[in-house]
Amino acid sequence: MPTDQPPKKPRRWKTWLLALVIFLGGGATGAGLTAIGIYRSVHHALMHPEEAPHRITSRLKRPLDLTPEQSARIEKIIANRQQSLTKIRREVQPQVEVQLDQLQTEIDGVLSPMQQTKWHEILHRVRENWFPSIPATQPAGRD
User: Fold this and answer.
1) Tag placement on the chain: N or C end, fewer CB within 10 Å?
2) ∠ at Cα 138 (132, 143), nearest 5°?
């Protein structure tokens, strides 16, 4: 027995909601992967400063349209400046270490012994990852 009711319209709001969820999920995934990539890149640069002159010069080649001779000279200049910056860092690093030690001591005063143990682990990782020890000698730039 046929009915006189018009056919039901599909509920489009569900389709739009699903599309929005997929879009936001993709955006969140992309942002997370970008953050991980940046973190790894910065961490690698901190742990391998000897690669900086070559890496920086490589990034300048295309936008500046450098010749091979210019690239070689610029890489040496960057390597020399990096040595000067490392010397400055060696002079300042003890002050940074004192501040980090004071930070640890002051926060220790607020924490329980169990919390202090966890805090020391966290601070150790931060120091290891973001304040690496300075190499005794800086290798010369690549020739």
Assistant:
1) N
2) 130
